[in-house]
From TrEMBL:
InterPro entries the record matches: D-isomer_2-hydroxyacid_DH, D-isomer_2_OHA_DH_cat_dom, D-isomer_DH_CS1, D-isomer_DH_NAD-bd, Glyoxylate_reductase_GyaR, NAD(P)-bd_dom_sf
CDD domains named in the record: GDH
PROSITE patterns: D_2_HYDROXYACID_DH_1 (PS00065)
Catalytic site: 242, 271, 289 (proton donor)
Enzyme category, top tier: oxidoreductase
UniProt xrefs under SUPFAM superfamilies: Formate/glycerate dehydrogenase catalytic domain-like (SSF52283), NAD(P)-binding Rossmann-fold domains (SSF51735)
Recorded GO CC terms: cytosol
Residues of the D-isomer specific 2-hydroxyacid dehydrogenase NAD-binding domain: 111-291
Residue numbers binding NADP(+): 159-162, 181-183, 240-242, 289-291
Catalysed reaction, written as an equation: glycolate + NAD(+) = glyoxylate + NADH + H(+)
Species this protein is from: Thermococcus barophilus (strain DSM 11836 / MP)
Source lineage: Archaea, Methanobacteriati, Methanobacteriota, Thermococci, Thermococcales
Domain D-isomer specific 2-hydroxyacid dehydrogenase catalytic stretches: 6-323
UniProt gene name: gyaR
Family: Belongs to the D-isomer specific 2-hydroxyacid dehydrogenase family. GyaR subfamily.
Designated name of the protein: Glyoxylate reductase
Length: 336
């Protein structure tokens, strides 16, 4: 009996690929760039399984070209790149990789927050460029002034696993912790010393606002011109969620005109991304979507992808199944 075939749209840790090979015939796209659309359309024609990333748009056209496809294993927590409703209708299982990247992403949110608050990137450039030596200024009281973090107020928008992990770190900075989410979480309020606030109140009161929400119809452009104007002029916005949670044009205006003091962004409206207006600003810290980029997190994500694929191949429900409604459409496994 032939092994089911899986196409992996990007190089992932080889240890996980070797495990997957025990159950699947594996093909990996090893180019650093994502497979072009036409290549992806061709590759899915004869695959039973697909390992995807957020930049892979898995829409109806792709699904139409994949008659044998039975499972999509997303190498990420988010899955807004996949047409979940259409996949479910066709009996295609969709999985993701929650939990395993929570701490790495929370760490990175704090890295962005601190780097932005203290002008770390510009200070690094100042030293590396030789400008420090050329100016001959050993130290000056007004050099690279930043904003205090300890004892300030942090507002966390989205209070799931990552939002809560960010709050735990905020306790070490003796911060007042505010949060907003669709539902209140009294047990977490008590555990973390967090206070629920309506969104607009949170924006008005916070010195640092961290976005940790999924991209949905409700969160699309959640941070727009109106809401940016609610924030303190000394406030800093951190986005580790999805780029389209923030209206970039409005953010540029806010940064240029001083509605807020700065921003730290790990995600963008389109990725890869370039925006001359945004990138010329000195009060923004930028990263290329690397919130989960630690050895531990990326290996754990790959292992979870493998576990999902193997469980499905065995006829078992994958451990992190996203669209549980699919269980009513088709049983797990490749039996016809």
């Amino acid at each position: 009996m032939r092994k089911p075939k899986v196409f992996i749209t990007r190089q992932i840790p080889e240890t996980a690929i070797n495990v997957i090979r025990e159950y699947y015939e594996v093909e990996v796209w090893r180019d650093e760039k994502e497979p072009p659309r036409e290549v992806l359309l061709e590759k899915v024609r004869d695959v039973d399984a697909l390992v995807t990333l957020l930049s892979d748009k898995i829409d109806r056209e792709i699904l139409d070209n994949a008659p044998r496809l039975r499972i999509i294993a997303q190498y990420a927590v988010g899955y807004d790149n996949i047409d979940i409703e259409e996949a479910t209708r066709r009996g295609i299982y969709v999985t993701n990789t929650p939990d395993v990247l929570t701490e790495a992403t929370a760490d990175f949110a704090w890295a962005l927050l601190l780097a932005t608050a203290r002008q770390l990137v510009d200070a690094d450039k100042f030293v590396r460029s030789g400008e420090w030596k050329r100016k001959g200024v050993a130290w000056h009281p007004l050099m690279y002034l930043g904003y205090d973090v300890y004892g300030k107020t942090i507002g966390i928008i989205g209070f799931g696993r990552i939002g809560q992990a960010i709050a735990r770190r905020a306790r070490g900075f003796n911060m007042k912790i505010l949060y907003y989410s669709r539902t209140r979480k009294p047990e977490k309020e008590e555990e973390l010393g967090a206070e629920f606030k309506p969104l607009n109140e949170l924006l008005r009161e916070s010195d640092f606002v961290v976005l940790a929400v999924p991209l949905t119809k409700e969160t699309y452009y959640m941070i727009n011109e109106k809401r940016l104007k609610l924030m303190k002029p000394m406030a800093i916005l951190i986005n580790i969620a999805r780029g389209k949670v923030v209206d970039t044009k409005a953010l540029i205006k806010a940064l240029e005109e001083g509605w807020i003091a700065g921003a730290g962004l790990d995600v963008f409206e389109e990725e890869p991304y370039y925006n001359k207006e945004l990138f010329k600003l000195k009060n923004v810290t930028l990263a290329p979507h690397i919130g989960s980029a630690t050895y531990g997190a990326r290996y754990a994500m790959a292992e979870l992808v493998a576990r999902n694929l193997i469980a499905f191949a065995k006829g078992e429900v994958p451990p992190t199944l996203v669209n549980r409604e699919v269980l009513n459409v088709r049983k797990p496994g490749f039996s016809r």
